[in-house]
Design brief:
The protein has 15 helices and no strands. The protein is mainly α. It has one domain. The mean pLDDT is 94.
Length: 332
Amino acid sequence: METIIWGFVFGAILQYARLNRFDTIAGMAALQDFTVAKTIAFAVGLGTLLLQAEIYLGWADYHVKPFILIGIVAGGLLFGMGMAILGYCPGTVAISLGQGNLDALVGIFGGLCGSLLFAMVYPSLGPLLGPDLGSPSVRTLLPGNALFWTATAMAAVLFVGIALFLQKLKGDGWRWLHAAIGMALLNALLDLPFAAGHPMGASTSFPFLAMAITGLGAESYWHKIAEPGAWELRFLVGAFLAGLVFSLLQRSFRITSVPELWKRYCGPGRGKRFSWAFVGGFLLLFGARMAGGCTSGHIVSGGMQLAVSSMVFAVAVFAAFLATGRHFYRGA
């Protein structure tokens, strides 16, 4: 029950700033809306200081994802493509489904198929994703306290500066800032042992659910994901409930199929939107499984830990995200 409550808080924060919306996420791919970029940058900047302080005080531990080179880079590229096409992340898609977006449901089905395929080919594909370069972070690269804290402070200032620059470039209120602070505090809280003892995440829930329903996939992969996948599934149930509850309270719940931004560039056809939503979801989750994480678990949580794998993943994701967005929402 606790995990569902944490997921509900997660969903409420993102919905408050409209960060789960297709038009917000795809709007960034079209370079029209920088809400997601601002929020992530500020959340990582603030969260870096909070999390590193927690770890220094002995209240929390590192959970750095391994730097498996091909998996991180290739997975990040596929993830970025999928995020631009689908217009949702593994976490936000659950919130948007709660608000009545049917294309989010199709994207979830595509994600289940993509993650199930990965689970089935994992024994043969896994060894090809290397080399495994360990789990480097700024902490391991700069073991001296003075150097480490200097680098941490510089990283925090850099991320916060990026967020404020983007706000100045295209200011649109301050809800994104409230959400960024909320995300940083939530992730720092989840890292404490009494809460969850690990960062937030979403993508592992997809192969967990797909394998549980079908009974397919490699047993070795099931043993690897069963525990985190169950936690993340409950977390996303809470996010879904937040989307449903707040949209009903605000009287904004609507059964919709085609988002407005998609209509503008790709037309109002439901069949076309659903087809691409499935493809986007498939790429999104196959890429997430290759890289071992997603927006929340890799870019945000890993960024707060100053993990090398997460920073490389973020670069690959946003490169593919913007390139794909140019095709779908600017060149269409």
